[in-house]
Amino acid sequence: MATLLVSYRLVVSPTYAQHTGFLAALKSGAGGCVRLSEGSYVMDTDQSPTAVYEMLKRYVHQNDLLLVLRVSRPYFGQHAIDVVEWLNARL
Questions:
Q1: Any bridge partners for residue 40, and if so which?
Q2: What Rg do the C-alpha atoms of the chain give, in angstroms?
Q3: CATH of 2-90, one of 3.10.20.70, 3.30.40.10, 3.30.70.240, 3.90.1860.10
Q4: CA–CA separation, 59 and 21 (whole Å)
Q5: Taking the C-alpha atoms of 77, 80, 82 and 86 in order, what is their torsion angle to the nearest 10 degrees?
Q6: 91, 72 Cβ separation under 8 angstroms
Q7: So what's the pLDDT on residue 16?
């Protein structure tokens, strides 16, 4: 499994359906995921960053932001204990 960071910002006033569709698609492609901040999740998946981007791009408009990249050790910082434990278990 790969651990990927999905960072996004739905700039074009997202409807509730668009935002929930985006999150549902993100979570459906994950073997587990954890929210880092309002616009970022880390996910476990068998998919490549390209495949995850392709899966999510139908929910974003031209001026929205979406970036998918691999996450690996080492990482540094502070966060909620459940997020740190999730990362430690997967990286």
A1: 7, 37
A2: 13
A3: 3.30.70.240
A4: 7
A5: -20
A6: yes
A7: 65
Q: What span, in angstroms and rounded, lies between the C-alpha atoms of 22 and 50?
A: 16
| Cα 65 from chain centroid (whole Å) | 12
DSSP E strands, 1-91: 2-9, 32-37, 40-45, 65-70
Structure tokens that stand for 28 in this block:
């459906």
Which one, of 41, 49, 46, lies nearest residue 87 by Cα?
A: 41
Distance CA 14, CA 44 (A): 26
Per-residue pLDDT tens digits for 53-74: 999 999 888 888 999 999 999 9
